[in-house]
Specification:
3 helices, five-stranded mixed β-barrel, alpha+beta, single chain
């Protein structure tokens, strides 16, 4: 009987970190922009309706923060935050959660240059 109890306690201890990880708020980088990505045959995507390519080594994060392969997302159109590399290729992509979508975020570099970022609430303030 004590062996079963210790196994049950070990299983419960392993489940606690999994529960706490699911509730962590992501901090999206201030230099990212909001957009919509339609994933095609890798490395091809449409970013806000315009053809774009994923950079070699591009990182795509799902709403839980796990890395996704672009091929697994083919045919999907998703709201994201993204960054581009110095060559203009899509480099970092964060697939957004509903609460992240509710936050205001710039969609163009011009908007990012004129809006003010609030680092405490992780939101942008439109003038």
């Amino acid at each position: 009987m004590p062996r079963c109890l210790s196994m049950a306690l070990a299983a419960a201890a392993l489940a606690v970190p999994a529960l706490t990880c699911a509730q962590v708020t992501r901090t999206l980088p201030m230099d990212s922009l909001r957009g919509e990505v339609a994933f095609g045959q890798p490395p091809e995507v449409l970013l806000n309706g315009k053809p774009m390519r994923l950079a070699p080594g591009a990182r795509i994060r799902d709403p839980q923060g796990m890395v996704q392969l672009s091929g697994a997302l083919a045919g999907q159109k998703l709201k994201v935050n993204y960054t581009v590399d110095p060559y203009g290729l899509l480099f970092n992509v964060w697939i957004l959660r509903p609460e992240e979508l509710a936050r205001r975020w710039p969609t163009t570099p011009k908007e990012a240059a004129t809006w003010t970022y609030d680092p405490i609430n992780f939101t942008w303030i439109k003038p």
